[in-house]
Design brief:
heterotrimer, A alpha+beta (147), B alpha+beta (235), C alpha+beta (285), C: 285 residues, nine-stranded mixed β-barrel, two-stranded antiparallel sheet
């Protein structure tokens, strides 16, 4: 604890500097909240500087909304057990994510539950500080879906 | 046989053997370190042809994709080519364009430094079996020296999103590229490139290009995004 | 919570977030990086050399003192008024949840940062003419350091500058000038006057590079800044790629402020409507 307190000034210095974060700021997402979206994979963008999973989900009125869930770059994803063919367009998946602060249908991926029963994670769980998401059924849907 | 004819024959034989001996001596004189340096293709290849000057043997579906790319290019629709937004050009394309590259022979790898957008290909020379995690624009290259003047580079795992040349020649993730690089003389490097891609071509085929040493040259720092922002072409 | 000179007080939830980041890194000493990801499998041929003048191989920059990131210039830096104003501006933006565009975020080479401590492993190739420092797995960079006693007369300003080096015994002295004035250090944009000198030595067992760096830029710092870094030997890893320009997604840039116009992108990837896949359009510059 003493070590942490001594590190506090450096920590504050570090956290004041958005250019120190990779490619866009961590201020973009709310890591204290988690939502769950179940939908059909439209596209996997296995790209740099970030990979994305695009998922189509239906809201309460039956309208389709496209969500974008951010992952790391492929070089990071493979170190977390991902492979490019884990997520396939057409798959029905459930994504647990930390939402964008501005309320848009996007977020940073915490977990993705795949049709074959496998679960893959992003980096967000290591930063997330909200309620437990261990049971995906307990995670609320985003207000955007009106469910 | 008349003595003069004998003389001529002997002289010719001497010239032939001496000439070939000199050529052999030049090739044998080269060391791996002679590959070091900055190189520029002798004549830019915009449209890949085989060593015989023929179009590559495309399968029908690939041919259709190629025609579409060529049509888009002719119509000024650049989005078939990801270099439009400065995504990687990859290989073989960067071995065919009028952008210099540098070879640096190191004890563990042979580095190819491409001036275009600061791309680097590190050819692993350890002989280890490398992992194909996912397709890359420069693939997974491994190499060996067949002799001091022949560098063989085998590349697999080339992502299909890149084009093989400026004209839009497509390929699949299954493309296998084998290069044999050798010095023809102190300032000329030849690259025999063999392509095999059963998803795209009906049979393997080869092409050959040469590069000229750019004596005293250094690579410049090239930033594609800055260039296109100034209205210059991406590649 | 302490307030450092020139910095606004940070909201509590961001403090909590950064604490989590720090704890994550501290708790992941055995892992390959600060996010607890699996280490890359090693490839053969990478045994450290005890030749004190052989820097070739694969290295990883250790974190900066007091940080988990190697390129942070830790401590209170002696910024000039001009530089401090930019730092304050950037941090005000961040506190308000707005991202200010930087070269790193916009896929440009990161110059001094890459030289002091890139996030990704650094491949070093070496021959009698020069050293090449290559980063593949993060912002792709190649920095060539030529063995020479003088810089060329005709330097074209660049993000990486022009680097020369000379041996003094087993110590390598590296001198870099010719920056293009776009580099960002701890939120300050340094000038073309930036002059970086590095003194590099190797441990006897070949597993550590010790690098002492001096940054001089009278337009940015009121006095020279001394930085110490250590790079640790890494068993060889297969190089991958980081094609930063590959996916210029529209939502990456929404809300971003481009203080420097050169950073504003002209090519954007849009998500397609309905079943239409994503596509890129470019506008005239």
């Amino acid at each position: 604890m003493k070590k942490l307190l001594l590190a506090m000034p450096w920590l504050l210095l570090l956290c004041q500097a958005p250019s120190l974060q990779a490619h866009h700021s961590i201020v973009e997402f709310d890591y204290t909240k988690a939502y769950a979206v179940t939908g059909r994979v439209k596209e996997l963008q296995w790209t740099n500087p970030h990979s994305w999973v695009q998922v189509l989900a239906e809201d309460a009125s039956g309208e389709t909304i496209e969500f974008g869930f951010e992952l790391g770059a492929p070089v990071f994803n493979i170190r977390m057990g991902w492979r490019k063919d884990n997520v396939v367009p057409g798959d029905i998946v459930t994504v647990i994510y930390c939402p964008a602060v501005n309320g848009n249908p996007r977020g940073t991926l915490m977990y993705i539950h795949l049709p074959n029963g496998e679960t893959l994670s992003g980096i967000a769980p290591r930063i997330y500080s909200g309620p437990s998401v261990e049971d995906p059924l307990s995670v609320p849907a985003p207000p955007l879906l009106g469910l | 046989m008349p003595r003069f004819s004998q003389f001529l024959i002997t002289k010719c034989l001497l010239l032939i053997t001496t000439g070939s001996f000199v050529t052999t001596l030049q090739a044998a004189d080269f060391t791996q370190e002679d590959f070091n340096g900055v190189w520029l293709i002798t004549e830019e290849v915009d449209t890949l042809l085989t060593s015989e000057g023929e179009p590559p043997p495309l399968l029908p579906e690939a041919q259709a994709a190629y025609e579409k790319n060529k049509q888009d290019r002719a119509n000024g629709n650049p989005y078939f080519d990801h270099t439009t937004w400065c995504a990687s050009a990859g290989v073989p394309r960067l071995l065919l364009t009028a952008h210099p590259f540098e070879i640096m022979v190191d004890k563990r790898q042979v580095g190819f430094f491409f001036e275009w957008n600061r791309w680097v290909r590190l050819v692993d020379m350890s002989g280890a079996e490398l992992e194909l995690y996912y397709p890359l624009s420069f693939g997974v290259p491994s190499g060996h020296w067949e002799d001091d003047n022949t560098l063989v580079v085998d590349t697999v795992g080339l992502m299909h999103e890149t084009l093989m040349d400026n004209s839009g020649l497509p390929h699949s993730d299954d493309l296998v590229m084998t290069e044999r690089l050798r010095l023809l003389d102190a300032n000329t490097l030849e690259n025999h490139i063999r392509f095999e891609d059963p998803q795209t071509f009906s049979q393997p085929w080869e092409t050959v290009v040469t590069y000229e040493r750019q004596v005293g040259a250094r690579l410049q720092e090239d930033v594609c995004l800055d260039r296109i922002k100034q209205g210059l072409p991406p590649i | 919570m302490s307030k450092m000179k020139g910095m606004p007080i940070m909201p509590l939830k961001k403090t909590a977030l950064c604490l989590a980041l720090l704890l994550t890194s501290v708790g992941s000493q055995a892992a390959d990086n600060a996010f607890g990801m699996a280490a890359a499998p090693s490839i053969p041929g990478y045994e450290p050399s005890t030749d004190p003048r052989d820097f070739s191989g694969l290295w990883r920059a250790d974190p900066a003192p007091g940080s988990f990131l190697p390129f942070v210039l830790a401590g209170e830096l002696p910024f000039t008024e001009r530089a401090q104003a930019r730092v304050n501006y950037a941090q005000r933006m961040a506190a308000n949840g707005t991202q200010l565009a930087t070269p790193h975020i916009m896929c440009r080479p990161t110059g001094v940062n890459q030289a002091t401590g890139p996030i990704a492993p650094i491949y070093v190739l070496q021959n009698d003419t020069k050293l090449a420092f290559i980063v593949m797995d993060e912002i792709r960079n190649i920095r060539q350091v030529y063995f020479a006693s003088e810089h060329p007369d005709d330097i074209t300003p660049s993000y990486n500058g022009d680097s020369i080096a000379l041996w003094e015994g087993n110590t390598l002295h590296v001198d870099t000038i010719g920056y293009n004035g776009r580099g960002v250090l701890n939120d300050a944009v340094h000038s073309t006057d930036m002059h970086m000198t590095q003194t590099m030595t190797k441990s006897a067992d070949g597993t550590k590079l010790f690098i002492d760096i001096t940054l001089e830029d009278p337009q940015t710092f009121t006095e020279p800044v001394q930085v110490h870094r250590e790079w640790s030997w890494v068993n060889g890893q297969q190089p991958l790629e980081f094609d930063c320009e590959e996916n210029p997604r529209e939502d990456n840039f929404s809300g971003m402020v481009f203080e420097e116009e050169y950073l504003r992108p002209i090519c954007i990837q849009h998500e397609g409507e309905g079943e239409q896949l994503s596509y890129v359009t470019c506008e005239a510059p």
